[in-house]
Amino acid sequence: MRYQSTNEHNEKLSITIYNDHFGLVKEERQIHSNEPCEEIQYLDVAKKIETDSIIISGVHVLELNYDFDLVSKAKLLEKYLDETIYIYDKKTKEKLNLRLLSVNDGIIGERIDTKEIIINPEGELVLPSLPAGLIAKPALLWKVPKAPLNQKINVSYLTKGISWEANYVLNLMEKDFALTGWVAINNQSGTPYENAELKLIAGEVNRINEVTSLYENNRNYHDEMVVYSSEPSFEEKSFADQHMYTLNRPVTIKDEQEKQINFLNITGGNYRRIYEVNRYSTKPEIKIEIDNNRENNLEIPLPKGIVKVYQADSDDLLEFIGEDEIPHTAKKQPLILTLGKAFDIVCESMETNRYEEENLEFVEYHYYLNNQKEETVTIRIDHSIIDRGWEMVETSHKYEKTTSTNVLFNVEVKPDEVVVVSFKYVIDRTIYIKNRD
Prior knowledge:
Blueprint: E1 2-5, E2 10-18, E3 22-43, E4 55-57, E5 63-67, H1 73-79, E6 84-88, E7 95-102, E8 108-111, E9 117-119, E10 124-126, E11 139-160, E12 162-172, E13 176-187, E14 193-202, E15 222-226, E16 234-239, E17 242-247, E18 251-253, E19 257-270, E20 272-277, E21 285-290, E22 305-312, E23 318-326, E24 335-341, E25 345-357, E26 360-371, E27 377-384, E28 390-395, E29 400-403, E30 406-413, E31 417-428, H2 430-436
Parallel strand pairs: 1-3, 2-14, 12-22, 20-27
Antiparallel strand pairs: 2-3, 3-11, 4-11, 5-11, 6-7, 6-10, 7-8, 8-9, 12-13, 13-19, 14-17, 14-18, 15-16, 16-17, 20-21, 21-24, 22-23, 25-26, 26-31, 27-30, 28-31, 29-30
C-alpha cells in the first residue's frame, strides 16, 4: 500500500533563506495509516530541490526516488500513442473515437469505425484517464519496511530558486537621518511555504557550482541583540561565521511571489556629508558617512543591499538624491555612501615644482578648492604618493597618513571661498640606488 503525505500534515514548517539563491526547508509531519504501507509518497516539495541534501528522521527509508514526470499536454498525448481517445463536438454533442497515431506535427488519428485518417480534428480532445507514471506535482517516493504508520517524521532539504536581499531607504534631514530597512524575498522554488518560521542568513557560504539537482553541525549562538525599531520584526544573532535574522511571527510565502518585510527603523542618528577629491578630480564625489555605533542609535550588523537616499527640498517635499550599494557591514563598521558628484564645488590640482638636491628629490603639490555653494562644506583630499621612501616636509593644512602611499586632508571651505592646500614632500633616492646594487 502507498501512503500519501501532503503539506496538510505539516505540524511545523520552517525555512532558512541564504543570500545566494537557495534555502533550507525543514518540515515536521504526522503520518498515520492503520493499513501496512511499504511506500510513502511525500508530496508538496520544491521543484528545485537538491536531492543529495535530503535528511529524513522518524522513519527507516530503504530507497528514495524523486518523481518529477509532471503532467503536460505533450506528455499526456505521448502516453496515449496507439491508444483510443475521442473528440467531443460541443455543438452536435457527438463523440468521435480515434486511435492516436502521431503527435509530432499536430494530431493525427485513425477513426475507429471507418479507418479513415483524421488530421488535427476540431473539437475537445478527451483522454479516458491520467496515464500511469504522470503526476500533477513533484514528489519524493520512499520504500519503507511494510508496517502500519503512526509517527512524526522530520524532513529537511536544500532548494534552489528562493532568495532574499536587503534594501534601504535613507532620509536625510538637516542634522539627522531616518533609516528604514526592508527584506525582499523572491520565491521561484516551485512550492509555497504556508505559516512558516522564517530565518535569513547574511554572509558568504561556500557552495560547489555543480550540485546534484534535477533543476537549476554549527557553533552556538552568541552576541545576541535586537535590531532597534519601534516594533522590531527580526531578531538578529551571530551564527557560525554569518549573521542570522529570525522573523518573530509566521509568514506565508507563495510560489512565484516577491514579498517585502520591514526589519529596520532608525531615527535620530547623525551623519556627515563629505566632498572627496583626489589628484585626478575636477568635481568632488558626494559622500555620506554614518557611524554604526550605539551613540548614533545603531551598532547593528547590516546585510548587503542598495540604499536609496532622499532629502526634502525647499517645499518640504522629498526628492531622490542618489543611491549606493553597501557590502555586509559589521557593527561599529561605518556606513559610507557615494551619491554622485557635486555641482557647485570645483577642484583643480597640480604638481607645482620638482627639484633634486644630491640624492633627495623634492615635490611640491597644490590643490585649489573652490566652494560656490551657500554653506560651508568639508572637502576631503585623498592624495596618493606612489614613490617609496617619501617624507612630508611642509604642509599648509593638517593631514593624516592613512597608508604608506596615501595622505588625507580634511578642509573646511566657506561659501564663495577658494582655499589652496599646498604641501611638499621629499623622496630619498638612495633607496633606488641600493636596490640596483
